[in-house]
Queue: 3 jobs
Job 1
Amino acid sequence: MPEILKILMEKTKKNHGKAKRETRNGRTYNIIMAILTGGLLTAAWPTWGIAPLVFVGLVPLLMMEDRIAKGGGGKLFWVSFLAFLIWNVATTWWIWNATPAATAAWILNSIFMATVFWLFHITKKKVCNQPWGNLFLIPYWMAFELLTYWWAAKWPWLNLGNVFSSTVSWVQWYEYTGVAGGTLWVLLVNILIANILQYFKTKEAKPLMINIGLELAILLVPITVSKSIYKHYEDQGTDTEVVVVQQNCDPWNEQFDRQFYDQVIQNNINYSLPLVTPKTRFVVSSESAIQEGIWLHETDQVRALHQLHDYIKRVPQACFVIGGTTYEFVPKGMEDDFPARQIEGTNRYYYCHNSALLIDTTRMQHRNKSQLTPGVEAIPEWMGFLKNYSITMGIARGTLKTDPEAKVMTFGDHKVGVPICYESAFGEYVSTFCKKGADLLFVITNDGWWGDTPGYRQHFEFSKLRAIENRRCVARSANTGRSGFINQRGVVLQQTHYWVPDAIRDTLKANTKVTFYAKHGDYLSRMAVYLTFVQVITLVVVSLLGIGKTKKAELSKPKKKKR
C-alpha cells in the first residue's frame, strides 16, 4: 500500500510540475504575442512607419485570443492592455512634451481598446468559438472608433484607417468610405490571416482555401481600384492662388507673451507680402496668431485687426485668414451655461473662443472651434471645479465656447472651410464644410507645443486624408511645424520645414462637387453601432439561456466509438 501511495504522489508531483511549466510557458507566449502586436502597429504608423505592417499587426493578438478561448491560460484583458499600451505610448509619446497628463491619455485609451477586445473575446467564446467568430471584432472596434469622435475623451488619433496617410495611392476610395473604410479593411485582412493560420494548424483544407481566396481578394482589389483612380483622377475646379505663412514663433515663450503680439502680426505681413500677386485670393496664417484678445462687440479697438485691414487695403483682391482668441458677453439668463466665465469682481459673464477669422476690405467674419482638445480647451462638466483652468498646458484655459456646427466663410465667389487644429482629425466634421459649399479647405494650427517630434508630422498627414475624402485642395498653415499645400488626391505639392519662418504660394483648384462620403459621413461606423447592439443582445441571450455552457459540456463528453 505505501508503494502505491508513493507512486501516486510522484505522479501527482509530476503532473503539478507539468501544469506549472505549461502555465509559465502560456504566460510567456501571451506576453510575446502582446509585444508583437504593439510593436507591429507602432512600426506601421506614420510618419516613419511601414503601412503594410498594419495588415498583420493584430494577428498575434488574435492568435493569443484563440488560444485563451480554447482553454489556454491567461488574462486576456491585461495582456491586450499591454499590447495597446505599447502602441499608444510608442506612437504618441510626444504628447508628454505638452503635458504630463499624457500618461492618463495613454492609459485610458489602452483601457478602452482592451475593453473592446475583451468584449469581442467574450462574445466569440459564448456565441461561436470558431475562426469565423473573429468577425465579431469588427463592429465592436468600429463602434469604438466612432465614439472617439463623439464622447468627452475625444481621441481619434489612432483610428486604424489613419495609417494609410503615408500611402494615399492605396486609399483613393476614401471619397466613398472615409477613414472608417480603412479601419474595416485592416480588420478584415488581419482576421483572415489569423483564420488561415488557425485552419492551417487544424488541417481543414476547404475553409483554409476559402480564407486564402478571400484574403487575396480583400487585400488586392481595393489597392488595384485605388491605383487606377489615383492614376486617372485630375483636380477639378477653378484656379485659385493661395499664400500660406509659417511665422514660426515659440508658443511656450513668445506667442502668448504681450511683448510679442505686434511682432507676430508684423512677421505675417512681412513674410507674405512679397509673394502676393494680382491673382492671389487668400493669405492663410496659423491658429492663435492674434493673441491680443478680440471682443466681438468692439473689434475696432484691436490693433492687430487694424494692421491686417491696412495690409488688405494694399492688396484688395485678397483676404487674410488667421486664427485668434475672441470674447463675447454671455446673454442674460445664460450665466449657468458651462463655458460661461465670470469677470472677476463683477456680475458679468463672458465666453472665450478659439476662432478663425477672415478679414477683407469691408468686414471680418469668424467661426469658433467646435471640436475642442480634451483637457486643454474642454473640461468635462462633472469636473466643473476646473472649468476655468486647464488640466494640461498652463497657458490654455478651458472650457471654451464652441459653435454648434461647422460654419463656412465667404470671399467673392468662394466659400471656404477653416478647420482649426485638432478639428482636422475629424473626418465627418470636416466634410460638413464641403456639404455647405466650401470649395477649399484651410487648416490652421499650432503644432509647436510638441517640439520636433512625430506629433506635428502625424498631424500634417491627416490633412491628406481630408483632401481625398472631400476631393478638396488643402492649404495648411502651422505656427511652426509643417505648413503646405495638398491636392485633391492627397499629394503634397509643397511643404515647409520645421522651425523655419517661411511663406509659400501655390495655385489650387477650388472644387464644389460633394463626394459620397461628404454627403453620408461615417455611415460604416453607424452600421457598426447597430451591429454592436445586435451582438451584445445575442451575447446576453446566449448567456442567460446557458447555450454556451451546454455547448462546452457537450464538447467535454467523450465520443462513443462506432462499432
Job 2
Amino acid sequence: MKKRLIRTILSIAAFVPVFFIMPVISYAEDLILDGVYAENIPLGGKTEQEATDAINLYLQELSTRSVTLYTVNDNEVTVTPADLGFKWANPEIIQEAVSIGHTGNIVERYKTQKDLTYSGKILDIKFSIDDNMVRQVLSEQCASYNIAAKDGDISLEGGSFDITEGQVGMVVDVDESARGLEDFFLNQWSGQNTTYQLTIKMDTPNGTYEDLALVKDVLGSYHTSFKTSSASRSNNVRNGASLINGSVIYPGDEYSFYNHVMPFSYDNGYQLAAAYSSGQVVDSVGGGICQVSSTLYNAVLLSELEVTERRNHGMIVTYVDPARDATIAESAGTDFRFVNNTDAPIYIDAYTTDDKQLFITIYGHETRPAGRTVEYESEVTSRSDPGPDVYIQDPNHPIGYIRTQSAHNGLKANLWKVVTENGQTTRELVNTSVYNAAPKYITVGTATEDPSAAAALSAAIASGDTENVKSTAASLKSAADAGISADAQALAQYEAALAAMNNEQSSEDNNDEPEEEPVEEPVD
C-alpha cells in the first residue's frame, strides 16, 4: 500500500514540469524568435516579409560602398557594389530563421528557446555579383588603362621586306578578374569600403622578328586585266587593291576580304560604276570590287590556303574563267574568306599598273616539296541560252533614250585542282559554279506629251526588232527636237515618199538621187 502511494506521487511529479513549461513556449507560429540574427540584424519578433525587408534595407546600404579596383600599373577605377550587380545570394536564410524553434517536439522547442536566450543564433548573409555587369566594368572602364601589344609589322619596299618587331603589352585578365571578384564578394568581403587587385597578364604580340623573317617566298600570284573598264570602275579596282595591299595574316587566322574593303562609299575612295544585281547590270558605289576579290581568290588557290567562304557571281564574268571568280555582296552578307593554314605569317602584295593590270601576290614560308606544281582547270559542263530580248519602258527618260545590257549565257562549270608531284598527277574538284542566263535588256525612254509618238514607239517595241525600235526612237526624237508632232511627221514622211516616187519617174531624164536626211543616233 505504501509503495503504491510512492509510485503515484512520482507519476504526478513527472507531469509537473510540463505543466510549467507549456506557458513558456506559447508564441505566434509566424514570428521569428528573439535571439535570431542575420549578421548583426535582429530578426526576433518579425514576420518573414518584415525580416526580408530588413535585410534588403541593409543590402541597399552596402551597395553604395566604394570598391577600388587596381588595374594596369596600379591605376585605380572606383565603383560601387551596385555597379557590379551586387545582390543577396542566400535569401533562403529567412525560411531558416522562421523555422528556428518552430520544429521538433515540445522539449526540443523549449531547449531551442533557452539556447536563443543565452547565446542567440547568427545566420550568415551571402553576397554575389552579376558576371555580365562585372565583365562590362572590366572591359570598358578598366580596359582604358590597358597597354595593348603592338604587333610586328612587315612591308615590301623595292623587292625586299622591312620588318618591325612587335612589343609586349599589359592588360586586365577579364576572365580571372571576374572569377576573383565573385569569390571575394561571396567569401571575403566585410561590407566596408574596400580595394581589390585585378589580375594583370601580358599581352603577347603577333609576329616576332623570327616569325616575320620567314616571309620571303612567293606562295601564289595571279593577275587580271581591266583594260575595257570605265574610268569609275577602274578607280574602284585600284582602290580595292590599295585597301588589301600590305595585309598580314598570321597562322590560324581567318582573313575577311569584305572587312578590308568596306564601306563602299565615296569617303572610302569608291565611285559609281556598273555591278550585277538580281540578274541586271546596275550602277553601284564600288562596282568592280569583285574583280579584286576574284583575283585574290586565284592567288589564294595557287598558295593552297584554306578557303572558308566563296561564292560565284549570279552571271558569268569575263575577267576570269568560269568557276574562278569570288563575289562579295554587302546586302546579302556574302564574303570571301580564307585561313592561313601555313606555319608562318603571309603577306598580300596587291597593285595595279598604268595599262590596267591587277597583280596580287601572296608571300610566306614555302614548305611544299620542290618540283610540286599546282594548276587549276575550268570545265564548262552545260550551257543555257539567254532567251529573247526584254524591253523595259522607262517613263523617266524621254523618247530617244535607249540603253542596252548584253545578254549572258547560262553556264555550269567545275574547277579542278591539278597537282603534279614526283611524277604523279592528281585531280581534285574545288567547286561547282552555276551562272544564270540573262536576256538582253533594252531600256527605252518613253516620256512624251505626244500620244501619237507614244503609240508609234509602243508599236516599234511590240515588233521585237531592236533596230526598228532604235530607228523609230531616233526619228521621233529628231521630230520632237524640230517641233514636229508625230502625226505631222507621218504626213511629211508620206509626202516625201510620194515625191520620191515622182522623182524616180523623172530621174530617167536626169541622174539626180534624193538626198538622205541624217538621223541622230539615240544614246546607248
Job 3
Amino acid sequence: MTAPAAPAAYIPPEPLSGSTLLLGTLALSLATFMNVLDSSIANVSIPAIAGDLGVSPGQGTWVITSFGVANAISVPLTGWLTQRFGAVRLFSMSVLLFVLTSWLCGFASSLEMLVFFRVLQGLVAGPMIPLSQTLLLSSFPRALAGTALALWGVTTLVAPVVGPLLGGWITDNISWPWIFYINVPIGLLAAGFTWAIYQKRETPTRKLPIDTIGLTLLVLWVGALQLMLDKGKELDWFSSPEIIALAVVAVVALAVFIVWELTDKHPVVDLRLFKRRNFAFGALSLSIAYALFFGNVVLLPLWLQQWMGYTATSAGMALAPVGLFAILLTPIVGRKVGSWDPRRMATGAFIVFALVLWMRAQFTTETDFVSVLIPTVIQGAAMAFFFIPLTTITLSGLSPEHIPAAAGLSNFTRITAGAMGVSISTTLWESRAALHHAHLTEGMVQGQGVFAQTLNGLTNSGLSMEQALAQVNRLIDQQAYTRAVDDIFLGSAYLFLALIGLIWFTQRPANAGAGAAAEASGAH
C-alpha cells in the first residue's frame, strides 16, 4: 500500500550564507572529489594490484569494471531512495558507507575479496554525485545556481588530474591499499560537516513502491553480461559452458527486463524515454563514446607499465594533464551551450578524440615521454566539449519532472558502457598481441639469420640459452603488445568518426542550458 504523498506545504529552506555556505560547499565538494577520484586513481595501480594478488593485469581490470557496473546499477535508484530516506540522510549514509567499503578494499587479500568490496563500494556510491548537486543548488540563491554548478564542475574535473598522479605516487612509495585508505579521512570530514550543516534542511520523505522484479532483472542481465566479458578470454569464450550459461542468462534477463519495465507502473528505469529521438540517439552516442574513451584511458597506463618500463608514478604523470584544457574550457562550454549548436560542439569533440587516438596509434617501442604527453593534453579539450553538449541534447525537450529519471537512465547506460569498454578493449588487446606475436615469429628459424646472430650475441655476453631465448621473447612480446595497442587506438579513432553520424540524428535543442546537462554528466 502506498502512503500519502508528502504535504504540499513543504517550503524549501533559505539559501546558506557566509562561512556556513563555504563549509557546506567544501563538504559536498570533498565527497564528490573522493567519488570521482576513486574512478581514476586505480587505473595506474592495476599492474601493482595484479602482481600483489597473483593475477594477470587483465584480471586486475576487474577492480575497475566491478565498481563501474555496481555504480551504474545503483544510480537509477537515487530518486526512490531520496524520497524514502531524505536527501541529507541518504547522502550522509552513502558517504559513510563509501568510507567503510574503501577501508575494506584496502584490507582485501585476494582478487575475489577486492572485487566483492569494490562492488559494495560502487553500490553505495551511486547516490553521492546527484545528491551533492541537489544539496549544493539548495545552498545557493537561485541567481547563483550557475556559480554553484561551476564550483561543483571544477571538483569533478580536478579529480581526474589528481587521481593518476596520487595513485601512481602512493603505489610506488607506500603500497596500493592506501589508494583506498585515503578515502577514510576525506569521507569522515565530508560526512561530518554535511550532517552538521544540512541535517535541519532535510527533504520530505514518503513511502513509494519499488520495482523489485525490475531491479532483480537489471542486476541479473548487467552482472551476467559483465562477468561474461571479464572471464571470456581466460575461459576461451563460447567453448566454455560457463560463458554460454552467462550469455543465455544475460539475453533472457534483458528481454524479460525490457518487457517488464515497459509495462510496470513504477519502473526502476523508464525505458519509454527511448521513444524520444533526442534521448535515444543522445544517450546512445554518449554511451558508446564513453566506452571508447574509458577503455583507452585504462589501456594506456597498462601498456606504459607492462611494456615501456614506466613506474606507476610516471604513468600517472603521463595521464594527469588530461584535465588541464578540460578545467579551462568547461566553464566556456557551460556558458555557450545555450547559444551554440551542441551538435556541432559534440562533433568537434569526436574529431579531436579521433585525432588524439590516431596520434597514439603511431606509438612505437621507441616513443618518448613527451610524445605520450602531447595527445593527453589535447584530449582535455575534447572532454570539455563532450559531456555537457551531449547531455544537453539527451535531456532536451523533457519536462522538469522527467529530468531526474532521464538523467539516471543516461548515467546508467554511460557508466555500464564504460565498464564494458574496459573489458572489451583489454580482451581485444590480448588477442591482437597474440596475433602479432605469431606474425613476428613465423619467419624465425633456430640457427638462421638475425635470430641466430641475436642468440649468439646474448649467449656470448654470459646468458644461458634459456635466458637468451627469454630475452628475445620479451622483445617480441614488447613489439606485439605495442602493435596491438596501436590497433585498438586506431580502431577507436575510426569509431569516433563513425559516431558523428549518430549525433546528427538528433534535433537541435530549442533552448539548451548547462544546468540540466550538469545534472547527468557529473560522474565522469
